[in-house]
Amino acid sequence: MRTLYSLAAWAAQPLLRRKLARRGVAEPGYLHAVDERFGHYATPRPEGAGPLIWIHAVSLGETRAAAILLTALRERLPGMRLLLTHGTATGRAEGQKLLQPGDVQVWQPWDSRGATQRFVDYFRPDLGVLMETEIWPNLIAACRARNVPLALVNARLSARSLRGAERAGWLLRPAYGALSAAYAQTEADAARLRAIGVKHVAVQGNLKFDAQPDAAQRAQASGWRAALGARPVVMLASSREGEEAEFLGLTGTPPLASKAQGATQSIAFTAPLWLIVPRHPQRFDEVARLAADRGWRVGRRSAWQGVPPDEALSADVWIGDSLGEMALYYGLADVALLGGSFAPLGGQNLIEAAACGCPVVMGPHTFNFAQAAEWAEAAGAAHRVAHLAEGLMLARQLLADAPRRDAMRRAGLAFAAEHRGAARRTADALAALLRAGGAPPSVD
Q1: Among 45-54, 138-147, 338-347, 374-383, which is the least confidently predicted range?
Q2: Catalytic pick from 62, 244, 325, 352?
Q3: Where do the domains of the chain lie, and which CATH numbers do they carry?
Q4: Residue 241 bears catalytic tag
Q5: How far apart are CA 442 and CA 382, in angstroms?
Q6: pTM over 0.85
């Protein structure tokens, strides 16, 4: 059956090239080194005495989690060289920040037999690390055939994803079973990973709890809050398509007084500043147009440096159209509504919001971060609602209740601190796996 899958992957390569060309119009990063995706490299293999550790972090969130792990790995494996792969342009751009002399960054190979075999034969990593959910049958098979130990790290598998994996069990069960180990975020993830065939599973926790909010961004947020005066800020965090339109429709009509007095005048606002931070950068312009077309006066983060200018301070809606500044946005917001949780998309990461002391309102769909969402709700750091209209109603109630907001802020900080330590535990496990040559002791 994997032969049929491999034939389909081989036949789809021209379609992939066309897709990359289309994506490259909006995001030029997709046009860089396209041949790497098919197993052809101009970059030399890293040479040196230390082990070559390959980490695959498909996109932005996985790359940031990998950064946390990488710091702990470098402490345990002095002289290690890093081979870093990605699937998205945002992931690759973020990953450049992690490279040291001797490290190499390339695209993830397309999951055809030829491309994956060329990748493994060319780089010959001593250990492979797949972040979170990245299961690619031919890539895993190529590593197994060449005795490359391979671990799924910060691993998560929702009940929905397990059902999908079981339907494609003829292909995915052997892939999961070929992993050397999986280091799961939660006991529930571990149980599902065992059910789909992973032989060696341990619960090490969620790496994202170990991320420390950027201190400079937190300080910048304080300056912006001072410039806004008493005006509250409600944030739609990491929003997905469809959520912004619903959000803007529910917030009402733009304040007439604001438009009448001009964009550059200082106005005493009672209405909140609505802050929308889209999850995907290719949608920044779309969301800004959506707000403007509805009559809102829009300020865009990318249009200023330092303290926002008067025309931004008097805007109705801000678009957080920048990358790597979530600590700034969470530090600015009085309340954050969790994107991806108001449509059946699984929700986005709420851990960073809690670590910044920002109260969270989440919708019913949090299966991508089920345990973290459950813990945050139990700790009092987050509240769950049935739909976005109820979420905005709760956000307004919180704006009027400073003691309740402060309690949620303190609960979020305590919740984030309580669950740290996954980076240390995971790095120790990977170092042991490397020493054992891919045959870990029993970790169940």
Answers
A1: 45-54
A2: 62
A3: 2-205+421-435 (3.40.50.11720), 215-418 (3.40.50.2000)
A4: no
A5: 36
A6: no
